[in-house]
Amino acid sequence: MRQAPSVIAVTVALAALSAALGPIAGCAPDEPVTVSREALGTVVSITAYGEDEAAVRAAIDDAFTGMAEVEAALDAYDPNSAVSQFNATPYDEQTLPPDAVEALDAIDAIGVSAEFSPALLGVVGLYDFEGTPSVPEDADLALAVSAAGGFVRVGNDRAVFSRTMGPDPRLEPGGTLAPGLDFGGAAKGLALDRAREALRASGTVTAALISAVSSTVTLGSKPDGTAWRIGVEDPRDSTVVVAVFQLDGEGAVSTSGDYQRYFEHDGVRYHHIVDPATGIPARGVRSVTVGGADLSGLESDILSTALFVKGPGAAAAYAEETGLGLYVVDGEGRALTVPAPDDSGLIVAEVASPTP
Ligand code: AMP
Ligand code: MG
User: Fold this and answer.
1) Which of 15, 73, 148, 208 could form a disulfide with 219 if both were Cys (CB 3.0 to 4.6 A apart)?
2) Which residues contact 195 (CB under 8 A, 6 or more apart)?
3) Which residues are near ligand 2, the ion (C-beta closer than 5 Å)?
């Protein structure tokens, strides 16, 4: 208790010092500004290059504002979000927020609707990842999966959950099995795209890396000509980097893993990426990382989740067909890499063996 005031004083002093030095110091073109803040449920770091430090910092502020807007629209766990407003009366046809339309369009365009469902709020909600570990009853899971399957888009920007079951209070809004939209598997990537556009639109940022830990996008090329390096952690040891995605210029990389939100029950790991067909956590994979120079953050985020559900073999086939770089750690801890095409601007390098 007695130490608290001096700790605060030191923090304030440092903040004042850097504020005083900031505008005077400026920054060399090859010395980036890095700002890290809590956002999107994690820590987001922006490293940006540009000659005018004050303008670069202003652009970074705009980038964080853009990300906050996407979060405010799509966060299904924020009762004030546009998606939560939709979810409050899911059986009424309603207009979707534009960010949700963009995500739905991307899911369709990529062709992963069987593996990536934006309608799994009621299904994922049956697993209590933050509270007491609980495995849902089979019958409840079947009901929630069926209710999720009732999601239909009406035209481009309207949608509704049509009832797939007879009357059941648990399926009504607020009930334990009520359906709802959840863009948790895509929103981070879309937010990173917004941040990148804000930096680009500033006209002052020449290159940048924006990382939300599990998803990263890059803008332009590093001024020193070296590649952007995005590390992939060992799914069983967060202190070890097992692969590095090296992007020459612009691109996106996302990881989905069974270690990000999970609990263990009777020796079985229940994690947060579920097969939309069954509602059960997808098996046979520990992590999937996918990247490409032509991928948006939104696409890479959707894809890492979808390829996790597909499993190693189908994920590899998808990456080969579409010219993406892929790194998978399977259920036994074996690594599988699909290199991106030679001239694609992406190299996937295995740097260590994952924990078996
Ligand atoms: P990510 O970490 O990007 O793979 O996203 C995982 C999150 O997406 C979960 O926490 C759920 O909110 C949601 N989710 C889980 N399974 C799926 C799925 N099959 N399709 C779409 N979203 C999912
Ligand atoms: Mg995702």
Assistant:
1) 208
2) 44, 46, 63, 64, 66, 67, 210, 217
3) 185, 301, 304-305
pTM above 0.90, yes or no: yes
Q: List the residue whose alpha carbon is closest to atom 3 of ligand 1.
A: 185
The number of the ligand 1 atom at minimal distance from the alpha carbon of 305 is 4
Give the closest residue to 35 by CA, choosing from 18, 11, 51.
Answer: 18
Rg (C-alpha) for the chain, rounded Å, is 21
Phi, psi of 237 (to 5 degrees): -155, 100
Pocket of ligand 1 (CB under 6 A): 115-117, 120, 124, 182, 184-185, 214, 256, 260-261, 272-274, 276, 301, 304-305, 309
pLDDT per residue rounded down to tens, the chain (356 residues): 223 322 222 222 222 223 333 333 444 557 999 999 999 999 999 999 999 999 999 999 999 999 999 999 999 999 999 999 999 999 999 999 999 999 999 999 999 999 999 999 999 999 988 888 889 999 999 999 999 999 999 999 999 999 999 899 999 999 999 999 999 999 999 999 999 999 999 999 999 999 999 999 999 999 999 999 999 999 999 999 999 999 999 999 999 999 999 999 999 999 999 999 999 999 999 999 999 999 999 999 999 999 999 999 999 999 999 999 999 999 999 999 999 999 999 999 999 999 99
Ligand 1: which atom is nearest the Cα of residue 276?
A: 19
